[in-house]
Amino acid sequence: MNPHPSIEAQDRPARLTVGVVGAGRVGPALAASLQLAGHRPVAVSGVSDASVRRAADLLPGVPLVPPAEVLARADLVLLTVPDDALADLVHGLAETGAVRPGQLLVHTSGRFGTAVLEPATRAGALPLALHPAMTFTGTSVDVQRLAGCAFGVTAPEELRMAAEALVIEMGGEPEWIAESARPLYHAALAIGANYLVTLVAQAMELLTKAGVRAPDRMLGPLLGAALDNALRSGDAALTGPVARGDAGTVAAHVAELRKHAPQAVAGYLAMARTTADRALTHGLLKPELAAELLDVLAGPAPDGGAAGPAASSGGQAPTDPPSGTEGAPEPEGEAEDERDRDRDRPEGAEGAEGAEGAEGSEGSTGADHPDRSVDTDPASGPTRSESAGPESAGPRPTRPDSPDSASPDLGPHGGDA
């Protein structure tokens, strides 16, 4: 529930005209939310068919114009493009004189603070970084989800109150993030949201192979309870064979995965090692049970070689082929993920016109967002390096009886949040 009471839009005049550059999943939703707060969307830019549809659905009657024209019409401009396109877009807008002094320029990237807006700031713009920690669908439901949504806010001190006020007007909760902490903040959201989608989709695939007819219904209550417990209690909420030190059960898991889903072995081992490390650090896993468990987790890699560092002395083992998507539902969106902003990507810094000249692919954060719609097939993803073997996912925890176990921090993952 948003503790800040809203004011009916009709009870106050529109105070700012609002423009959107990049009609992905995030931009139109934020503009629609600002409209409910009394501001007035006046222009939006977007090229792909999906962008045009989103703009028409969420901002009916608002004209689609080139990016430079958006800036010419709006007091507040939302730059909702992919992270990798943002710097070139800002540079192009500044170089072509599209930026006006006193204009509020807001980007929604989780990765960047306001430094990426420096070219526009030099031209007189007022820079704000407002990143909604939410997954977006590109539909009207996103506007409702902003109620109570946390926003990572970075701004010059003199604009802090203005930035926080805009977030509150959209129904969100501002959370101040220092400029230097933005990459770490965004990485945390990617771990918590983007990779959660991968784990859940993989779990559903494995349940389907095990004969479960409705894996989503089986996982729903379990995942809901696990998430709630983790948010309430942190590591103390951990359950399962690793926390109990059930080495035989973990060994059986690995054997079955090698047989039925070899592509899942590397991820399972990496997560199990991290889980064992945290369980040891927090006193959940008894040291006398840990040695046998860690031996299992240091077992042979999927190609039959050793999984530990010794195996990589003559070269890293090849990765397993990526898992398929059979039975996995199409994701709604991603928080801290680069697929929620529209990939109407600028071609370079030649000018603002580049922001509408290059078509991207249509794609949920995220992380995100946590954040911008990508015009790609949601089922596709980045390919993994052929040289990255299972061990690349992370080192094994230190065995309690090893010479390295004198420190209570049992491995590089110990104590990480």
TrEMBL record:
Residues 301-318 have a biased composition (Low complexity). It comes from the Bacteria. Residues 5-132 form the Putative oxidoreductase/dehydrogenase Rossmann-like domain. Residues 301-417 are annotated as: Disordered. It holds the Pfam family DUF2520. Residues 338-348 have a biased composition (Basic and acidic residues). Gene3D superfamilies: NAD(P)-binding Rossmann-like Domain (3.40.50.720), ProC-like, C-terminal domain (1.10.1040.20). Residues 149-274 form the DUF2520 domain. PANTHER family: CONSERVED HYPOTHETICAL ALANINE AND LEUCINE RICH PROTEIN. This is DUF2520 domain-containing protein.
